[in-house]
Amino acid sequence: MIEIISKPWPWYIAGPLIGLTVPILLLIGNKTFGISSSLRHICAACIPANISFFKYDWKKEIWNLFFVAGILLGGYVSINLLANPDPVVIHPNLASELKTYGITNLNGLVPLELFNWTTLFSLKGFIMMVVGGFMVGFGTRYAGGCTSGHAISGLSNFQLPSLIATCCFMAGGFLMANIILPYILAL
Amino acid sequence: MTKETLNNTEPQEYQDRSLNTICTNESRLSHPWWYNFKYLLVGIAFGIVFVKAEIVSWFRIQEMFKMQSFHMYGIIGSAIAVGALSIFLIKKFNIKTIYGEEVEFHPKTFNKGQIYGGFIFGLGWAITGACPGPLFAQIGTGASVIAVTLLSAIAGTWVYGLWREKLPH
């Protein structure tokens, strides 16, 4: 059993499980599934700085912080107790393209040659971790949600604004991955 | 509680909160703080799915945006299908929460932020290979440097709050 669970899960198992999060959170406490708002609650709790956007009672939304703490713990559990024994399977075209940028270690969930404490202080690492992270936090809040809040929660409830947001997520992603990122990786 | 009464009581707060994906419906039931541990458990299960299905993998996100793999499309598509079916059933049979409360849904209103912000997030998603949820899961898997990415995302959210009045919406 553990052996089966340790293998990477196919999309038709993982997708429905993620979809089930929507009714589970609704039914156990009337909560709308969404993750990026946790970043806002952290701002409201730690550095509200008299900004009206952060002046609200974040304690009313504390469930969201418990939820993301759980996601972090879930990551710890799966890597330590349910680790995949086999190498990660990567599309050969992607693998050969990454090789041209000197990325050959394809084990793990993030490319270790790009994301580590040493590269953080290089221009490439700074763009990928600091600038990239900033755009994730700024963009999700500006859009009013991320993949979970808009693409999954919003589209499950047939919300047009969520469809617009999701299309823009994908447009930005396609542009970055295909056109801009090669220049960053070449730095 | 209806939208109207909320508007009458705390208009600014309602405005701010409804711009978010967070719950604008507070339960009238008050529970001790440790009731929140149920959300921790859901989060753990969710985090395990994230890692085991490699949704938190930078490589899978690149494959998605390069149209090299169906995996992520299958996940997002089937998640929406299951979510939509669940919401349909909840509405049709008027299923209540475990505390007997009515399940509330909050229609989203359109603003241009969904276009500009969505596009900016998309750029960041393809660089970091992570949306906000996977950032937490990646740190859990031991990628300690991703804590910097998370802090930067928190900074991004904070700067949005600071500039919010000046940004087009």
Describe the structure concisely.
The complex is a heterodimer of chains A (about 190) and B (about 170). Chain A has about 190 residues and is mostly helical.
Layout of strands and helices, then pairs:
The complex is a heterodimer of chains A (about 190) and B (about 170).
Chain A: H1 2-6, H2 11-29, H3 37-46, H4 62-81, H5 92-100, H6 123-143, H7 147-156, H8 160-185
Chain B: H1 3-9, H2 11-18, H3 37-52, H4 58-65, H5 71-92, H6 113-128, H7 132-140, H8 146-163
Walk me through what this model shows.
The complex is a heterodimer of chains A (187) and B (169). In chain A, helix 3 crosses helix 4. The mean pLDDT of chain A is 94. Chain A is mostly helical. Chain A has eight helices and no strands. The longest helix of chain A has 26 residues. Chain B has 169 residues and is mostly helical. In chain B, helix 1 packs across helix 2 and helix 3 packs across helix 7. The N terminus of chain B is likely disordered. The chains are: A mainly alpha (187), B mainly alpha (169). Chains A and B meet through helix 2, helix 3, helix 4, helix 6 and helix 7 of A and helix 2, helix 3, helix 4, helix 5 and helix 6 of B.
